[in-house]
Amino acid sequence: MQTTLRNLGFRLLATLTLTAPLAASAQKKPAPKSANAESAIRETDIKRDLYALAGDHFRGREGGTLDELKASAWLAEQIRAIGLLPAGDDGTYFQWFHLQRTRLTKASRLSIGTHQLKLHEDALVIAPTTYAITAPLLYVGTGTAAELAKVDVKGKAVALLFSGTPPAESSFRYYLRQVMTDKSAELLKAGAVAVVFVADARAQAIYEHWGHTYERGRYGLPGDAATQPVSTPPTILLPETAKDWVQQAGQQVSIDLRTESFLYPSVNVVARQPGTDAELKKQYVLFSTHQDHDGVRAPVAGDSIYNGADDNATGCAALLAIMRAFRQQPARRSALFVYHGAEERGLLGSRYFSANPTVPQASIVAVLNAEMMGRNAADSAALIGSTPPHLNSSDLVKTALAANQAGPKFKLDTEWDKPTHPERWYFRSDHLPYARLGIPAVMYTSLLHPDYHTPRDEPKTIDYAKLTRMTTWIYLTGWAVANRTAAPAREPGFKLER
Description:
Elements: H1 2-13, H2 43-54, H3 66-82, E1 85-86, E2 94-104, E3 109-112, E4 115-116, E5 124-125, E6 131-139, H4 145-148, E7 157-161, H5 172-189, E8 194-198, H6 201-216, E9 218-220, E10 235-238, E11 252-257, E12 259-273, E13 284-290, E14 295-300, E15 303-306, H7 309-328, E16 334-340, H8 348-355, E17 364-370, E18 380-384, H9 394-406, E19 411-412, H10 432-436, E20 441-445, H11 464-483
Parallel strand pairs: 6-7, 7-8, 8-10, 13-16, 13-17, 17-20, 18-19
Antiparallel strand pairs: 1-12, 2-9, 2-12, 3-4, 3-11, 5-10, 6-11, 12-16, 14-15, 18-20
């Protein structure tokens, strides 16, 4: 499977030699450094590019599939037409990497009493595991300390109803996952051989969303602990409809789970616009985004393509527009543009590039990350990485805030950057691996909305005027950083909360 898909990917891109564009050898003499090219950022260009990338043709650009590779090839062709130089591997715009996938095989089986459960529909196994056992099912209500004190769980599969209310500052889906993790650990330590949760009304909505996620299994870079095959007792989640029959006495649980693990190719798309200063052009301002989304999944209201217009075709179209501006008027420092593959698989492209950059890691002076920038109120946005403990460069943040005042003048939401925010937004995009390395990094975003990770995230829902202003904000920040003499200072003592 791995070899076949990889060969297909290379054949797909074989028509694109993607070496230095012809136009690169005929650059204009740079204008004075104070003259930027903001006028090169046009709403019509952004809208055209976003409709092309987030249309059904690329089928949602799922990481590790031909759809992601096709979208990456399309992006590279746009970049070559703009005139930027390739900055990937071997003189191309591409940096290849593998993502590892571990999942349950189709031969896996699960039954409780007379109920033969279809995995990923009738039951979710929270983590892939190779594990086989037949054991009595013990129902313990909601699993309180008082209920558990009355029973012996050793050698039994324990079933319990999910219950509880998250703290005010917690997201319910994070709370659900944490409760299952903690309670499973407690029961397994006491001798249980499997733990079976039954969703309540609140957990049922998450159950329905999680099904296609767990069917895909777990992803990581080769060697990541999360993707290594294990043989541990499973934690299982049943839908709310199982509440009545799971309580029947005398039932047996039969578990026969098997896993498989294999590699897929993914790709980062990398381009650069050289700077004009003899010394500063050896340094880079990195403009970051990701090209992948969720692909084709179970239909919602008849639509099975998760187009990812806001997440993250907005960032992709924005970077193309910023490239046009830097191509029209280069800055003193060089501009580096990276489209990270497989972000939705766990920031895999940015993890790989930050650890294996195609330019010296020390030459990257700042990372400006574009993530979901075209929805919600027209006058509001957020700069993630501007609030401690996420603040790793006051200097960079001041530059970004000044660019906002000079340009779009957004009202900035700072709540989503706080460590107490339930969505933990800081940890969910491609600036994070760079920040962990100490590189000054911020994220530009217009935050979540009800269409997030659904087939409703389509090009027609985007506020293109707002997206253009967000793009301008990033550009003005990058232009300022690229032309100042000193690189943005790093925050002393920077340390993330997790």
